[in-house]
Design goal:
By secondary structure, the chain is α/β, with parallel strands linked by helices. The chain has a single domain, classed as Class I glutamine amidotransferase (GATase) domain (Rossmann fold, 3-Layer(aba) Sandwich). The chain has helices at about 25-35, 45-50, 60-70, 75-80, 90-95, 190-204, and strands at about 5, 10-15, 15-20, 40, 55, 85-90, 100, 115-120, 130-135, 140-145, 150-155, 160-165, 170-175, 180. It has a seven-stranded mixed β-sheet. The protein binds glutamine. Glutamine binds near residues 60 and 121.
């Protein structure tokens, strides 16, 4: 795998891919670099094999799902996640990591991995986009929501990392090596969520 050893042979700089089928790939690459990782775009199975962890960006989950099928990435993504690869999904990426979704289009599939139900465009019905200050796993984070999903319910092994008004909805979760947020930390210049994920990859 692509970990870069430091001068003592330790692996401290993980290589993290950003799934580059569709969505805000460049912003995640920049944030991962700022958070201390080597970042690379992932489009095909050999690129997926070479990374220590993966970010699934915001964008449009229906398009991402269709492109993942066309590029023959859906099964390889499922396999690596089943194998324990750390992954972080933001917004559309959260939908892609959900075991079950509501308000998807006909036949919409996800990669899955997190035992939760995610409702697509849930906040979108109330406000197309909004910003909020949240407590994310003990740090204050400024969050940007754009036609965002929320987490309708979680299984026993899923830890809730953040909730947001209106309605105290669940907007950030972790299950083992998998992290998901309804919001877009890559659009704020605040690297804390990416640092949290880079540390998850380092620990695993
Ligand atoms: N509504 C989008 C979807 O269903 C997600 C929006 C986003 O990623 N900003 O995929």
């Amino acid at each position: 795998m692509g970990r870069t050893p430091d001068q003592n042979g330790r692996t401290t700089v993980p290589t993290i891919g950003v799934l580059a089928l569709q969505g805000d790939v460049r912003e995640h690459v920049q944030m991962l670099q700022a958070a201390g990782a080597t970042a690379t775009a992932v489009r095909r199975p050999p690129e997926l094999e070479a990374v220590d962890g993966l970010v699934i960006p915001g964008g449009e989950s229906t398009t991402m799902w269709k492109l993942a099928e066309i590029f023959e990435m859906l099964e390889p993504l499922r396999l690596r996640i089943k194998d324990g690869m750390p992954a972080y999904g933001s917004c559309a990426g959260m939908i892609m990591l959900a075991d079950r979704i509501q308000d998807g289009v006909e036949g919409q599939q996800t990669i899955g991995g997190i035992d939760m139900v995610v409702r697509r465009n849930a906040f979108g019905r109330q406000a197309d986009s909004f910003e909020a200050d949240l407590d994310f796993a003990g740090s204050a984070v400024h969050a940007v929501f754009i036609r965002a999903p929320w987490v309708e319910s979680v299984g026993r092994d899923v830890k809730v990392l953040a909730t947001a008004a209106p309605g105290d909805r669940i907007v950030a979760v972790r299950q083992g090596p998998l992290l998901a947020t309804s919001f877009h930390p890559e659009l704020t210049g605040d690297t804390r969520v990416h640092e949290y994920f880079v540390n998850m990859v380092r620990e695993l």
